[in-house]
Queue: 2 jobs
Job 1
Amino acid sequence: MSVRLIDVTKIFEDPTRSEGKITAVDRVNLEVAEGEFVTFLGPSGCGKTTTLRIVSGFEAPTEGDIIIAGRRVNDDPPNKRDTSMVFQSYAIFPHMSVVQNISFGLELKGRPKAVVREETARIMDVMGLSSMAKRRPDQLSGGQQQRVALARAIVNRPKVLLFDEPLSNLDAKLRDQMRLEIRRIQQTFGITSIYVTHDQIEAMTVSDRIVVMDKGRVMQVGTPFEVYSRPANRFVADFIGRVNFFDGRVVEGGDPLRVDLGGKTVEVGSRVPGVVEGGRAVVAVRPESLRLHPANEGGPSFATGKVTKAVYLGSVIEYELDAGFDRPVLAVSHDPVDAGFFTVGDIVALDFSARAAHALASEILKPLPATSGIA
Ligand SMILES: Nc1ncnc2c1ncn2[C@@H]1O[C@H](COP(=O)(O)OP(=O)(O)OP(=O)(O)O)[C@@H](O)[C@H]1O
Ligand SMILES: [Mg+2]
């Protein structure tokens, strides 16, 4: 029931482009364990759907192998792969009732009538669809239709469930509910699942592991914690959530790392391989991990900045600060009513804990100015 992708590449011929072809998927290697929920996350056009279609058999790889449950399935058509796909558009039959939609696949397989009835009833019960068994899709809400589509995919007990942005047609609230629903159903049945989305919150909510892709390539495979808090590179750090990057030089390679940021030394609790003493590094700090203090209070800080924007959102307040770096510094403060907040024009000192800072290799680096960073 596990799925393996070995060096999977897909090159499309595209006569409208000067190069004549496009590498949609570029040497992707991945192992999805039995019962695991893995999500492909990345910007539009990065190759998520193409990869999923290659697993399902709707697309053939230009190179590489697909292994499902230990067997190479490259030459098997989609209906011989024991995968089931759930799409963005629900793909349920408009002229059939809920119960007919769900039982259709089992009937097609020639299962005995009693079994079809029993299995269909069970799945409708799990999905909360029993009370609407006789209704047609046009008598259902978007979320209910999507549940029918999901029930239809699951009732056949596929070895692998494949989802391509299944929730993008739903409104925000329903999407939140359906995410948890999908996760619950997947865990109830223990079905190995591969999910595609470009919504990072969705990916964080449902996944055991996330595969972050860019331009057909895998940039990182990790748990939600790893891709958010221990990103492998600048692309991942930047694509998932918001982040501040501070360019610096590693003055001590120990644990914690000590990094010079334009004259002030900060401690950094984690790093990627390749960050070494004497070399350059980019220190990544999430906005919610930056601590702001009134500048006149003294205390530890690596920079001083002026508040240029303060957006009050109720539960949080979001700041932009000019601290003399090449881009504005972002900070988020929680519970502003209790914690107090700054306003535009205030001068604040910036600080972060070593735990919340992560050092990346500085692959793309502008030359550092002689004195950078300190206002
Ligand atoms: N049949 C095709 N012929 C030519 N190019 C294609 C074809 N299908 C996809 N592509 C190209 O391959 C790349 C990857 O497309 P894909 O649909 O996999 O992206 P995606 O990550 O799913 O994007 P989105 O988030 O927008 O759905 C894109 O540049 C796309 O234009
Ligand atoms: Mg897509």
Job 2
Amino acid sequence: MGAGVLIIGAGQAAGALAAALRQGGYTDPITLVGAEPLPPYQRPPLSKALLKGEAEPDSLLLRPAAFYADKAIGLRLGTRVQAIDRAARTVSLSDGSTLSWSTLVLATGSRLRRLAVPGIDAAGVRELRTVADAQAIRARLTPGSRLAVVGGGYVGLEVAASARALGATVTVIEREARLLARVASQTLSAFFATSHQAQGVTLLLGATVSGFEQADGAVSGVRLADGRLIDCDLAVVGIGALAEDALAVAAGLACEDGILVDESARTSDPDIYAIGDCTRRPVPRYGIRMRLESVPNALEQAKQAAAGILGQPAPRAELPWFWSDQYDLRLQIAGLPIGVAREVVRGDPAGKRFAVFHLDAENRLQAVEAVNSVAEFAAARQWAAAGQVLDPARVADAAIPVKQIPEAPAA
Ligand SMILES: Cc1cc2nc3c(=O)[nH]c(=O)nc-3n(C[C@H](O)[C@H](O)[C@H](O)COP(=O)(O)OP(=O)(O)OC[C@H]3O[C@@H](n4cnc5c(N)ncnc54)[C@H](O)[C@@H]3O)c2cc1C
């Protein structure tokens, strides 16, 4: 029996990989070392059900704690890996101990971008990454409390929606001229701006935060660069995340804002894999490499690494996809808007049910953004993966059933 697989991190990707290895018949030791005190859990509910008080932390666990003991998967929780020694095939831990490995997997996730302004460490200025963060924010969200959300990305907007459901007064402060500027089309940005305003959220776009004001030892307001002061009792900062690749960089693995991996999730060292948010990975459909911060990506790369470790062929590449829930709106995105020449809207944003199809110059479907449109999402996911050519007029014609959008082949 070898030293087995050691996984650094005990999040979404790590938990999926450990389970897949045992399911695939791997019998050598498997150990997860995780900095957080909980076994692997899902983060999406942190800004949704958990924040609204509709879910308990236990319901977020990928598997019950007993699963790991049953499957002989070692969990070293509340413990950080401090360094990797590739020559000795060991890692050193924050508790002073050392562990050996035959195969190492980095599943260290991402770390939140910090806002470098005065007052960022004031009580009541929070970020949202862990169950502990969500519980701390939840405890301060009451009817009438005043929340300032810094950052109009998905996490910030989900926090805003959950806080409105709890009766808090909410202001979203976004530096760019539109919400979701880096990750959504203009149409989608405008739709979410209208939706949040209709729910009573105040949106401040093109607004830069210069600091946090304090009173009685806690945050009392957000100061903007133009001098405006937004009063608040709680501020949640969600301005994006960076790959947690410091261990890999120190160990001499190839990194470029994320650990570079191939289609089998292998790093520049064939005995070391990296999976999830910490990687920069190939996306074969578009011929590019990029970081993807999503649950589907973590799960796909866990499958790739499991196949590699088990000596099986790499699974077929999947099309990137993502979702977000805000109020009664379910957004699902499939594909990446790369090489887009035209956008075609199907359905009616005013009716809260529509999809934006992104086509390239040859009308090949590159990506779709679907709001409350499960059928469009499901079909477009297949078409975008295959680069299906679609007639823009048929896409836009809601009288044509989704499945019949691709023209029938000539008889
Ligand atoms: C609030 C929120 C909402 C989200 N909503 C969605 C959504 O709706 N849909 C979606 O697809 N995605 C969503 N995501 C993103 C998704 O949760 C991540 O993409 C996913 O968790 C990535 O999995 P991972 O295993 O790579 O990283 P993580 O799940 O973050 O796990 C990494 C773990 O590694 C640990 N770690 C790091 N360094 C060390 C070290 N040196 N030693 C030991 N442990 C270490 C970290 O503490 C962490 O626990 C959301 C994320 C957040 C924060």
